[in-house]
Amino acid sequence: MSRRGRTNDALDGVIQRIEFPAAIRPDPRAAVQGPPSPVLSICVPTFNRPELVQRAIASVIESASGAEAEVEIIVSDNSPDVSEEACLEVLRRWRGGSLYVGNRLNVGIPANFNESIARATGRYVLFVCDDDRLLPHAVRAILDALGDEEDAALLFQVDAVDPSGQVLRRQSFGDDAKLRPTRALGRLLADNRFALFPGVVVRRDAYAVVGPFDGSVGNATDIEMWVRLFSRYGVHCVPTTISAYTVHAGSATQSTPFDAQAVTQLIEIFDRARATGLLPVPTIDRYETDYIHSIILSHAFLDLRAGDPAAAREKMALFALPSVRALGLSKGWLPVRLAFSILVHCPSALVRMPMNFVDRFVLVRRADQARVG
Prior knowledge:
Blueprint: H1 8-17, H2 28-31, E1 40-46, H3 50-63, E2 71-77, H4 80-91, E3 97-102, H5 109-119, E4 124-127, E5 133-134, H6 138-145, E6 153-161, E7 167-170, E8 177-179, H7 181-190, E9 200-203, H8 204-210, H9 221-233, E10 235-246, H10 252-255, H11 260-275, H12 281-305, H13 309-316, H14 322-325, H15 334-343, H16 348-370
Parallel strand pairs: 1-2, 1-4, 2-3, 6-10
Antiparallel strand pairs: 4-9, 5-10, 6-7, 6-9, 8-10
Helix pairs in contact: 3-4, 7-9, 11-12, 12-13, 12-15, 13-15
């Protein structure tokens, strides 16, 4: 396949083939116990994390206090043998509509997301994964922003935190901005931290139009979904922080190997973005080069910070893949790439000190990229 990707007609064919399984299409009248027609469905997908999911659900309940008639909570559990009782224990505190779905088989991350959407009855849907949490004012801020029916997708700010809750990175949009599809897609492709899962609120009928999360792209299933949504509807960026996204070794992103297959899946997403025809191909090419560089280097950075140069060398070796070499060099990331190329061959004891400088460089770069005003 050329770097120009598929035509619009071809992309439509891909999207049309991605359908919600009939087995999990919801029966809204039977699915949720509680007030009918909520405004917001807050979905909490979980797997094998009873303590963390309790914290996540509790944060939703605290944030939604006073909005019980407008909010429903849906928990879709891929490990009910481990975490069902933990989930139900916290859900009993909630006075609004709720549903617990115990998947007796681990259906995987994308299918768990799709299960949640299929069971939702709210006009809008927000995901709070089991290792994330809502901030106390979040639900009121979301409901206040949902007055405009034209908004199919809203994007709120998200803080990245460590497992102890210490803020690692604050996202700031600067201004309230409604981005049309062309600009929304460009912002998404230009910055891999632009749209973080616990900050994206989507009208449920928009999910129905674009189709479910696609498991064929692996852990990047959320980015691929945002490509479809933003390229069709655009996105409303709301400069209010509503959630904390936890960065930790056990997260799905960091616990799944980042290898040649993962790179191939990311490149596929950019092919699909080209197929929308919204942005000039050279522009997407440039975004793709920067994006792939940033992802490879971020994984290498985590290995170096952990004192594992050997693992970091494996990540840096991904630059030798023909598909990555074809992208060319990223001028913006070249200094970090050159530095890491040296550090991966140093003893681990000598690696930790430079990581503090690189960490500050990356955080400043991310803060600059996040602004949309």
